[in-house]
Amino acid sequence: MALIVQKYGGTSVGTVERIQNVANRVKKSRDAGDQVVVVVSAMSGETNRLIGLANDISSAPNPREMDVLVTTGEQVTIALLSMALQEIGCDARSYTGGQVHILTDNAHGKARITDIDDARVRADLDAGRVVVVAGFQGVDEDRNITTLGRGGSDTTAVAMAAALKADECQIFTDVDGVYTTDPRVEPKARKLDRITFEEMLEMASLGSKVLQIRSVEFAGKYNVPLRVLSSFEDGGEGTLITFEEDGVEAAKISGIAFNRDEAKLTIRGVPDQPGVAYKILGPIGAANIEVDMIVQNISNDDTTDFTFTVNRGEYKKAHKILTETANTLGAREVVGDDAIVKVSLVGVGMRSHAGIASQMFECLSKENINIQMISTSEIKISVVIDEKYLELGVRALHKAFGLDEA
Ligand code: ADP
Ligand code: ASP
Ligand code: MG
Q1: The CATH number of domain 256-400, selected from 1.20.120.1200, 3.30.420.40, 3.30.1640.10, 3.30.2130.10
Q2: pLDDT tens-digit profile of 302-320?
Q3: CATH number attached to the domain at 3-174
Q4: Spans of the chain, pLDDT less than 50
């Protein structure tokens, strides 16, 4: 008998019929003799709808109340799925994150799981029940409801699997696995049978939202076998996230990730002195704005230009802070652009191959796409380009690196 954690995302539980479909799928695993814990997201669109309501009332909704609000979406689906399971003769019980006792820190909206009490869940499993757990939510030490960040149900599932030492954590979604790039942008994308944790982590952190970054981190750290599968198709093996295999030569490039959620800011003509980078980024960090890529130009005339990227949603706030900094530092001007995207090549095989960067730049230049910023690591190369070239750039790179489906 195996213990399986299955997670179903928003689209997979988007209607009553789909919830019934999920119930049938869960029952099949149960009938095959497995113990099953199911983690569900809110019905698709629901979390956004709730956030919209809050924004209609306040321009800066209270983070604690925001979490109380958005967690209701998952509370609906756990109840409905449990009812659907009971209807087909499968004993089931639902739990909110707080009821399980998924303990988190108190960072509302982006809380981290610190501990999970698995006693109640185990007791139910031992009694032959399916346990249905609300994704995305937990509770802090003072019993405030918290959430784990957008897409956080993936992390709930992996954390439950780690706590229960499950045999596998299965992420059921609306695609049948992890692809070489988002199949919605490049229909020629190929499904990968396997991808390493390291690559999956890069893909996720560079914008492939098929798995939340933290879920991949968690799975790697606690050795949770993780698989991405379709909730709409039967019989596929999906994509298994694995540890790097010895002996097998890794593909040069395993995938292309992109992030539309980007904006860049440049402060021009700052005095080129020690401490300037700190003076520019200090106030940005103090405002809790995450900075991604950073470029500082070589100085001419004792001044320099300094460019960095932030999340598009924080662009206006960052622009305002940077303008204040420019005034204090006596910089020439602040310019920005919130219509940019980041496109990245990812692959552990890159380590042993030179010339990937130049091949990437050549491909983009052939399409007349201007590269605005570049950053590299051992297993990825990222470029910032104008958002209007996203599709063109991704498809051209996909082809140039031999990723297109034959
Ligand atoms: P869920 O609601 O099930 O959590 P998500 O929308 O969060 O689903 O994630 C699935 C989506 O991720 C797919 O529909 C697909 O458009 C997108 N995606 C982005 N990059 C990839 C990739 N490399 N492989 C597969 N899907 C990807
Ligand atoms: N419902 C949450 C969201 O939309 C969590 C999730 O779907 O994983 O972000
Ligand atoms: Mg998701």
Answers
A1: 3.30.2130.10
A2: 899 999 999 999 999 999 9
A3: 3.40.1160.10
A4: none
